[in-house]
Design brief:
heterodimer; A: 217 residues; alpha+beta; 5 strands; 41% helix; elongated; B: 450 residues; globular
Chain lengths: 217, 450
C-alpha cells in the first residue's frame, strides 16, 4: 500500500524503476510535436502508464493526450499564501502589541490599516516560494542522475528532438512487443536505455554510452 | 544562435567593456567606503533637505526594474507573444536595477553595521522594527520583489540552461550547467507543473510590481510635506516606473541586438511596441503632472499651491522644466510611425526619458523639501562629488552585472521562443502534412485520441 503510494508519486514525477535486467526503458524519437502528440495518445490508449513525452517546449494538448489532469500546484500556493498572511499578521501584532508596545503619537499599538502592506508583500512572497518549491517537489527536481542521459540522441531533447519514453517498470512492458508498438505508432528510431547507475554520463565526443544499441528502421 | 554567445571565445570587446564597467563599479565601492568612514555628512544633505540623491537614485533604479516584470509577467498574462524575445533580458535588467536600488537604503543609514535593524530579527536590544512606517513597508516590498523576481527568472532559465548543458562538450561547463539545470529533460510530466508554476508566478508578480512602486510612493505620500501628501502618487509612480523601465529596455536592446546580431529575434516591430508603451505611459505621467498642479490650486491649500508654483518658477525651475520636456514632450514624437521605428531616434529618446524620470524624482524629493512651511528654514541643496560618483558608480555596477549576464546566460528565452513558433503547434502539421526532417516516419500523422 505504502509502496504503491511511493511508486505512483514517483511516476507522477517521471521517475521510474529499472527492471531486473537493468533496462530503464525504451526511448523512441518522433519527427515533430504532432507525431509525438498522437504517439502519446496512442500509448495512453494502449494502456501504458509508466511513460513520458519529452520535448524542447511544452506541447499543447499533451496533458490531455497522456491523460494527465490539472496540475496541483495551485493548492500548495494557496497554503503558502495563507501562511505568509498569517505570519505577517502575527509578526506585526505580536511585536507591536505584545512584546514591546510603544506609544507613537497616540496611535493604536496594532491596527489593520498600516499592517496591510507588509501582509500583502509576505502573502505574495510565500505564495511564490510555495509555487517554486511545489514545482520542484512535484517534478522530483533536482534530479542529477537520469538513465535517459546515457542516450546520445537524447541531448537533442532541449534543442529539436521529440521523444517518447516507455519505462521498463510498466506492467505491459516487453522489450520486443513495446519496440514493435513504438515503431507502429510512428517512431523514427527506438533505443534501449540501460540503467548503469554510474554518475558519469559520458559527455565525451562520439559514442558516449557504448552499450546502448540503437535500433533504427 | 542564442546559445552561441555563451559558448564561443570571449570577444575582446567584451573584456574592454567589462573592464570599463567594473572600474566604474569600483568607483562605487570607493565612494561607499568613503561614506562609511566619514558618515553621511559627505553628502550634500542639509536641514531642510534631509533626503537627497540617495532616495532619488533609489526610486530611479527601482522604477527601471519594473519594466522587466511588466514584460515578463503582465504581458505573459495578456498572452502577448512578442514578449518572449525580450523578457529574459528585461528580467535580468530588473534584478540588476533592484540590486543597484538596494545599495542606497543600505548605505544611507551611514552606519551600515546597523542596517539589520530594518529587518525583524530578534536581537539583544529586544527591539522590533516600526511597522507603521512606510519606510519599513519599503524594506518588505523591495526585498520581496527582488526575491520573487529572482525565482521567476531562474524558473524561466531552467529549460534554457538544459539546452546549454546538452550542447556543451566541456566537462566542467557540463557539470556546472547540469547543476543549475537540475536534471531537466523536457518531460511532459514536468512541463505540466512547470507551466502552471510559471503562470502562477506571473499572476503573483503582477500585483507585486504594482504594489512595490505604490509602497515606494507611500514613502512620500504618507508624510505631510506639501507636494508629497497626495493620493495620486501610487498610480502615478507606477506609470512613471513602467515608462522609465521601458526606456531602459529600449536603450539596452538597441545596443545588444546590434552587437550580438540578433536583429531577427528582437525586431523593429518589438521595439516599436515598446515605444508605443513609452508613449502611453509618458502621456499618463504628463497627465499626472498637470493634474497635480491643478489639484494644488483647486485644493485651496496655500502651502500646496506654493510648493507647485515654486517647482515651476523657483530656484529649481530648471529641473522642473527638464522633467516636463523630457517626459511629456519628447515621447509625443512617437505618434509618428517613422520616428517610432527609427533606431537612432528611439535610442536618443529612451535616454532622454530616463534623464527626465531621474529629474522627476529629484523634483519631487528636493523641491518639496527645500521650501516647506517655515520660510526661515528654507535652503538650497546641491550634491557633493560623493553623491555624483556614487550614482555614476551604480551605472557601473549595473553594466557589470548586465555584461556578465550577456556572457554567461542565454539572453533570449530559447524554450519560450520555440513554444510560440507556428511549428510548435501540433495542428501546424495536420494542415501541412509533414515537415522537413521526418522522411522515414512510417505513420506520419495518425489520428490520435482526441
Amino acid at each position: 500500500m505504502f509502496k504503491n503510494l511511493i511508486r505512483s508519486s514517483k511516476t507522477s514525477m517521471g521517475i521510474f524503476d529499472s527492471n531486473a535486467d537493468g533496462v530503464y526503458g525504451l526511448l523512441a524519437e518522433f519527427s515533430n510535436p504532432s507525431t509525438l502528440l498522437h504517439a502519446a495518445a496512442d500509448t495512453h490508449q494502449a494502456g501504458y502508464s509508466d511513460y513520458d513525452a519529452h520535448s524542447p517546449f511544452p506541447v499543447h494538448g499533451m496533458d490531455k493526450a497522456m491523460g494527465l489532469g490539472n496540475s496541483n500546484i495551485g493548492y500548495v500556493v494557496i497554503l503558502g499564501g495563507a501562511t505568509g498572511l498569517a505570519l505577517a499578521t502575527w509578526l506585526q501584532w505580536w511585536t507591536s502589541q505584545i512584546d514591546y508596545p510603544i506609544n507613537i503619537s497616540g496611535k493604536p499599538f496594532f491596527a489593520v490599516e498600516p499592517s496591510i502592506p507588509v501582509m500583502f508583500e509576505l502573502t505574495i512572497l510565500f505564495s511564490a516560494f510555495a509555487a517554486v518549491a511545489a514545482m520542484f517537489a512535484f517534478n522530483g527536481l533536482p534530479r542529477p542522475y537520469n538513465p535517459l542521459f546515457y542516450s546520445e540522441a537524447f541531448t537533442r531533447v532541449t534543442d529539436d528532438g521529440f521523444f517518447l519514453h516507455i519505462a521498463a517498470s510498466d506492467a505491459q512492458f516487453d522489450l520486443e512487443k513495446t519496440t514493435e508498438f513504438l515503431k507502429r505508432i510512428g517512431a523514427m528510431s527506438v533505443e534501449v536505455i540501460h540503467d548503469h547507475g554510474v554518475a558519469d554520463m559520458g559527455i565525451a565526443p562520439a559514442p558516449a554510452a557504448a552499450d546502448t544499441h540503437a535500433a533504427t528502421h | 544562435m542564442v546559445s552561441l554567445h555563451t559558448e564561443k571565445k570571449t570577444p575582446l570587446a567584451w573584456y574592454a567593456a567589462f573592464g570599463f564597467a567594473s572600474s566604474i563599479a569600483g568607483l562605487l565601492l570607493i565612494m561607499i567606503a568613503y561614506l562609511v568612514w566619514n558618515g553621511t555628512g559627505v553628502w550634500g544633505l542639509n536641514n531642510p533637505v534631509g533626503w537627497g540623491w540617495a532616495i532619488v537614485n533609489f526610486v530611479f533604479w527601482v522604477g527601471i526594474g519594473h519594466a522587466g516584470t511588466l514584460i515578463s509577467a503582465i504581458l505573459f498574462l495578456f498572452r502577448q507573444k512578442w514578449r518572449t524575445s525580450i523578457n529574459r533580458a528585461a528580467e535580468a535588467m530588473t534584478l540588476f536595477a533592484v540590486i543597484c536600488a538596494l545599495v542606497f537604503p543600505g548605505i544611507h543609514v551611514g552606519r551600515i553595521w546597523a542596517a539589520y535593524w530594518m529587518l525583524p530579527i530578534p536581537n539583544q536590544m529586544d527591539m522590533w522594527p516600526q511597522f507603521k512606517s512606510p519606510l519599513l513597508w519599503d524594506v518588505f516590498a523591495v526585498s520581496s520583489y527582488f526575491l520573487v523576481s529572482l525565482v521567476f527568472w531562474y524558473v524561466g532559465l531552467i529549460p534554457d540552461l538544459a539546452t546549454l548543458r546538452d550542447r556543451t562538450r566541456k566537462v566542467w561547463r557540463h557539470k556546472v550547467l547540469s547543476f543549475f539545470s537540475m536534471g531537466w529533460t523536457g518531460a511532459n510530466r514536468h512541463w505540466r507543473n512547470y507551466e502552471k508554476t510559471y503562470l502562477i508566478l506571473a499572476a503573483l508578480a503582477t500585483p507585486l510590481v504594482l504594489s512595490v512602486h505604490s509602497v515606494v510612493s507611500f514613502d512620500f505620500a504618507v508624510s505631510v510635506v506639501p507636494g508629497w501628501h497626495t493620493t495620486i502618487f501610487p498610480p502615478y509612480f507606477v506609470a512613471g516606473a513602467i515608462f522609465s523601465g521601458f526606456a531602459m529596455v529600449v536603450t539596452l536592446m538597441v545596443i545588444s541586438r546590434k552587437v550580438y546580431g540578433i536583429e531577427n529575434l528582437i525586431t523593429i516591430a518589438h521595439l516599436e511596441k515598446m515605444n508605443i508603451i513609452i508613449l502611453v505611459t509618458g502621456t499618463m505621467v504628463g497627465f499626472a503632472y498637470i493634474t497635480e498642479f491643478f489639484i494644488a490650486w483647486y485644493s485651496g491649500s496655500q502651502y500646496e499651491f506654493y510648493a507647485f508654483l515654486n517647482r515651476a518658477t523657483g530656484p529649481y525651475a530648471w529641473a522642473y522644466w527638464t522633467m516636463m520636456s523630457c517626459n511629456l514632450l519628447f515621447p509625443q514624437f512617437f505618434w509618428i510611425k517613422k520616428l517610432r521605428r527609427s533606431i537612432p531616434f528611439m535610442f536618443v529618446t529612451s535616454i532622454i526619458v530616463n534623464i527626465g524620470m531621474w529629474f522627476e524624482r529629484f523634483v519631487i524629493t528636493v523641491i518639496s523639501l527645500h521650501r516647506d512651511y517655515m520660510p526661515s528654514a528654507w535652503d538650497y541643496y546641491s550634491p557633493t562629488f560623493v553623491d555624483v560618483f556614487t550614482f555614476v558608480g551604480t551605472f557601473g555596477l549595473f553594466l557589470t552585472l548586465f555584461l556578465l549576464f550577456l556572457r554567461w546566460v542565454p539572453m533570449v528565452a530559447i524554450a519560450e521562443v520555440k513554444g510560440v513558433m507556428p511549428e510548435a503547434d501540433p495542428h501546424y502539421y495536420d494542415e501541412h502534412h509533414g515537415d522537413g526532417h521526418s522522411g522515414h516516419a512510417a505513420h506520419q500523422v495518425k489520428p490520435g485520441g482526441h
